[in-house]
Amino acid sequence: MPQQRFPKVEILSIAPHHFSFVLSETDTSMANALRRIMIAEVPTLAVDLVEYAENSSVLNDEYIAHRLGLIPIRYTPEGSMKGGDCHQAFLPHRECVCYDRCPRCSVEFELDVNFDKANPGRPDQEKDLPLTVTSKDLISNNLLVAPAHFLNEEEQDESHDEGISIVKLGPGQHLKLKAIARMGISKEHAKWCPVAVATYRFWPIITINEEACSMLTLEQKQELVEACPDRILELDEITGNLQAVENAFEMATFTEDLKVAQDAMKKRPEDDDFVSVVHSSDRFVFSVESTGAMDAEDILLSALRVLKDRLNYLAAEVEKLKE
């Protein structure tokens, strides 16, 4: 019978747009399943249908619809400030009993920007420039749903626009449309993907052979420190012994140069390594960056919920087979 495991999560850093954590006491099957679910099966909202009333801009209807589809749509649960999981607030469009659309399965955004009407209210130095239509111009019919204009405050401060650029309008040009956002998953289309980055790497196990290192001179130890491009080693200022730096696990990605350097210092090829760096088979460092549709930590929680639902479904099907 397979050994029962109890995976653990240790948070390294957490921010609304980025989440780093360590998944331990499990194997690559669990790590990869969690990563793939975060990428492809966490439900979010995205523009899925666009109805045009007028478009005299330089971009055709299909191009603008594509750009609208890639704008992250953020659902903020009532009483919360975080972008959360929308699976309880909305139904998938194909499962809703409505004829076309309803508030239970969709959110409507209206956009109406006319250059000639908007230009008189702009600063004098901008009146001769094209008018940029951004995600700020999308008006939602649901107070809990809005475009994620910026990933964080730093990005907002550095931006020259008020939101995500959609198209530029010139004199006499007018864009009026209605965009309908629906819930979906990235397995169907990438516009529903909640993550910009979702990666994991193996935790490095750094072992220093103290007995072998005692035979090295201070210059040779310094050579080993400098041989590794990731700088995962340092010399103790008091004892002069080799030791791993405090955040070595974040930097240890390439150690071949270290291997070559210490092989050259060995008296015999079969001698033990002075420093060995191997990958842990049950400890993984995850890095998750959100697109803005959800807070990074909620992406993990939603992925765990999806994984749990899948396993419960599998267990129920197995029980049916036994019967």
Can you walk through the features of this model?
This protein has helices at 28-40, 61-69, 115-118, 153-158, 210-213, 218-227, 248-251, 256-265, 296-322, and strands spanning 8-14, 18-24, 44-55, 73-75, 106-114, 131-134, 139-140, 145-147, 165-169, 174-184, 195-208, 233-235, 242-244, 275-290. The protein is α+β, with helices and mostly antiparallel strands. The protein is flat.
Could you give the topology of this structure?
Layout: E1 8-14, E2 18-24, H1 28-40, E3 44-55, H2 61-69, E4 73-75, E5 106-114, H3 115-118, E6 131-134, E7 139-140, E8 145-147, H4 153-158, E9 165-169, E10 174-184, E11 195-208, H5 210-213, H6 218-227, E12 233-235, E13 242-244, H7 248-251, H8 256-265, E14 275-290, H9 296-322
Antiparallel strand pairs: 1-2, 2-14, 3-10, 4-8, 5-7, 5-10, 6-9, 11-14, 12-13
Helix pairs in contact: 1-9, 6-8
Question: What is the C-alpha radius of gyration, as a whole number of Å?
Answer: 27 Å
Termini, distance in Å? 21 Å
In the sheet with the most strands, the strands line up as: 1-2-14-11
Instruction: Tell how many strands the DSSP assignment holds.
Output: 14
Q: Strand content of the residues, in percent?
A: 25-35%
Low-confidence stretches: none
Question: Which outline best applies?
Answer: flat
Total number of helical segments?
9
Q: What structural keywords apply?
A:
alpha+beta, 14 strands, single chain
Q: Quick gist of this model?
A:
This protein has 9 helices and 14 strands. It is of the alpha+beta class and 323 residues long.
